[in-house]
């Protein structure tokens, strides 16, 4: 169980303790434990302490690694804290401390009590400053050791030390070297310290119990519910992610419903999650980045270790998913053996009898599994996770005593099930571990997390009766919500909305045809939504002349729908498919004339793509190049950008048509060498970050076939090959603090032992500075103005450097050898951005020409538009401040991606953007359970196609066709879906296709249906006319004032009112009933 972090209970190495952060030594505890140390030393001097005349223990400097050292354990055991860079020497009459001045001031409190109660003199040897190597103080300690009288047969004094601990740092290295040269004899005292720590006092027992309570609470309240949720909802979760979630729960005990102070707890080791046939039962095991496996006959091993006040505990469980007979039998045997080992922990017995008790159960119940049993049944536990000398194995004959603590860990390693067809499940292991205290009678189990078969074995067999999802609820109210566009009075806005509806209807037809082909197994339907992937023979812009749109003016036009470019040539609009275009560019001459230059793919020219039409039309004449002149520079730029965007989309569709069946083996990076100087960008930071305490910036270089990022440290290097880049982004710092180069990859690469598909390089354009002064500086302060100008200059310089690097790389990617990669740095379109919650925090999400991205905060959010099937806008309606976006991918096996809590003010812009990128979108009032919907579609694709495909989401169409009848509200209804009764419990409701967040009144729905199509102003006028007919208009103003006063709690008695009819005016028109 791998070490990860340093322990707690360490005294700072700086100055003396300050108020609010006071460290104090428990003098009573020091006296009692020092007495126990000397008593044990005296009693077991010959057999455990090597007849040592003095004991020398040196504690190493502070470290970020979690280390279990005897020296640190002795510090904490005696003093309550770890004292780094401190030397303790115990003699029969003195205790010597060699340390810094701040630590010596803490230790002063033990001088008088030690002399008064133990007759021991505590001698402080203080280093003057950090430059002091302490040699003078060391010599004084050596003289004190030499003053000890020699025993019989000794030529020199015997000094006991911890032999296995290697000195760290210059101070301890100097101490060790001088100690060896001081003509003493040396013995190892590790055994003596282990035996001393083995039996716990009452305070230590309480600490172990609290640590064990935290460990089993995390297992019970966090790990098990999380696993059940992942398996039940069939989520893709990695072992490392589960490890991170569990570690956070340990460090924040409230997440596990445990009331312990967070500053007193820590992990014993990073939590361990293993599945998928790769198991390691050694204490040094670690969670990998592979997905949790929970298909039939899967085994999941979970281990959690927690510390409280530096005292350790451990619990491990094995969970069986649809276990086969061998797995069930092996677990039952292991459970009996584990219980036998725990029951054998009785005072007076030898440790080897505990292991023998477990072994006897296996030999009796399943002799064929004896060789698979672990060679140890656990170790002692306390200040160290594995207390040396207390290993429970067949050879250890140490005697058990009351108040000993053990981690009883037993398992079967590398069992094989030949009948299992899945390769991942052929090999499996089992593990159980608990923290146990040895008592006078029966042992006390501290980690009371159930391990019985009924609680760890899960069954998800297909033949079990499953609850059927309910029909998708529909409301009878109008789904045609009024937006800003609908409320505008100008005809242009209305016509724009109508055009968008028509375009969306055409997209729906194409999308349903494409989805039907794909579900039927037709590969031609697996391409982009705009059309099936075309061969060279299919490159036809329009099948007949009537399909060509009528031009408004003789200007260059782009037909997104047919992927065509209409060029005015000799007074006629001539169509060209965008695939025939090789390059397009725009230039400006000295007379401010703008020239658009379009170069076509012509057979026979170098690097032209192969075209089978060349053989069919050998006598054809090809247009190679055409240029147009324009006075409007803005229009020229828009045309060029639109052509490039359309061309990039078509190329992206073609590249995505063929799925990568297996991971592509990465080629080696070809360094630039002497051929050319590599493009370089310096002082960059990388995400994901390299591991290590201190982060340093690095340099990004563009070589012959990829990028290399490296720092000055050896081993900190990342290679990103051009062939592995799927999308490249350049995001300058505008409202952010960083300028970014981001690469989204085809295949995962390793960065700092993390598997990732996103690699980012960035620079902070300004320093994060917090003013410590209380007053605010004037806006006209010259220093403030100069500082702001420097920040602007720095930001502009960094943006220009990044832009220059991106442009030069773009030029490199235009070379013939990289033409097939179709790479270009894409820049996010900030004006189209919107706020949303793709993960856990609200971020600013920005579209690009080919993706939807969020690159500033982690985890990154990158979605390729060519992979999107449809988008469903959920929780859209009056009174809603936010709505959600559900992105459904063409690969129905992928989880639906959600962006939650998008402000309603962004709705119109998002719909316009989706429409212009040819992505079909739908709207709904409710959140849908997409996992169940996609499962229903894939289970019965024919029924999905027959019922109109995605049109079950089209609430607009169903309402307009049927006038809100009950039949139209059914929408898409799979054959195996039935209406559930109202009395079903909450669990079944969570599985329904629709998860309603707002309940609406039936009356309001019917009334809004009657008023469908009227604007707010029109409804207001109708209500006013109705009031006039009943003679209530005269007092409406007075009534309005009265209601206003009443709303603020200031109504006055005697105010005249007109009764209930006037009060209707304060109700929105959609809620009124007209007589």
The separation of the N and C termini measures 77 Å
The whole-angstrom Rg is 38 Å
Number of strands: 39
CATH architecture tag of the largest domain: Alpha-Beta Complex
Number of helices: 27
List the main descriptive attributes of the protein structure presented here.
disordered N terminus; elongated; chromosome; 1075 residues; Creatine Amidinohydrolase, Chain A, domain 1; PH-domain like; eight-stranded mixed sheet; disordered C terminus; Creatine Amidinohydrolase; alpha+beta; 5 domains; coiled coil; transcription regulation; six-stranded mixed sheet; FACT complex subunit
Describe it for me?
With 1075 residues, this protein is α+β, with helices and mostly antiparallel strands. The protein folds into 5 domains: 27-197, Creatinase/prolidase N-terminal domain (Creatine Amidinohydrolase, Chain A, domain 1, 3-Layer(aba) Sandwich), CATH 3.40.350.10; 202-453, Creatinase/methionine aminopeptidase superfamily (Creatine Amidinohydrolase, Alpha-Beta Complex), CATH 3.90.230; 554-608 and 621-659, PH-domain like (Roll), CATH 2.30.29; 679-767 and 787-826, Roll (PH-domain like); 843-953, Pleckstrin-homology domain (PH domain)/Phosphotyrosine-binding domain (PTB) (PH-domain like). An 8-stranded mixed β-sheet has the order 25-24-23-22-28-27-26-29, covered by helices on one side. It has a 6-stranded mixed β-sheet with strand order 4-3-2-1-5-6, sandwiched between helices. Strands 7, 8, 9, 10 and 15 form a 5-stranded mixed β-sheet that branches. β19 (581-588) and β20 (594-600) form a beta hairpin. The longest helix has 32 residues, at 782-813. The chain starts with 26 loop residues before the first helix and ends in a 12-residue tail after the last helix.
